[in-house]
Amino acid sequence: MTNPLPYLEQRKLVKRWSGPIAPIANLIFTLILFAITWWIFQDPRGVMRFYTPYVGYNYCRWWLRNLCTKGG
Questions:
Q1: pLDDT-derived band of residue 34, with 50, 70 and 90 as boundaries?
Q2: How far is 56 from 47, CA to CA, in rounded Å?
Q3: Greatest extent of the chain over all pairs of C-alpha atoms, in Å
């Protein structure tokens, strides 16, 4: 006997963490990732020192776009 519903529609989603733990963990992870990329690319004391708004912003935007579109 075959089920008329596809697999994704049959699944029951269950929360891993209760309460606001997941959004807070996501926010902390995002802020840490931003701080690291800021220090690498745009901080005048950082590695690449692209602290001009035009160059640094567009370089970070280009990397993020590439990571988001090709990484998944």
A1: confident
A2: 12
A3: 65
Contacts of 47 (CB under 8 A, 6+ apart): 39, 40, 41
Type of residue found at 60: C
pTM metric for this prediction: 0.52
Whether pLDDT at 38 is above 70: yes
Nearest to 56 by CA among 44, 45, 35, 42: 42
Evaluate whether 43 touches 49 at the Cβ level (below 8 Å).
yes
- Annotate 1-61 with three-state secondary structure: CCCCCCHHHHCCCCCCCCCCHHHHHHHHHHHHHHHHHHHHHHCCCCCCCCCCHHHHHHHHH
How far apart CA 11 and CA 9 sit, in angstroms, is 6
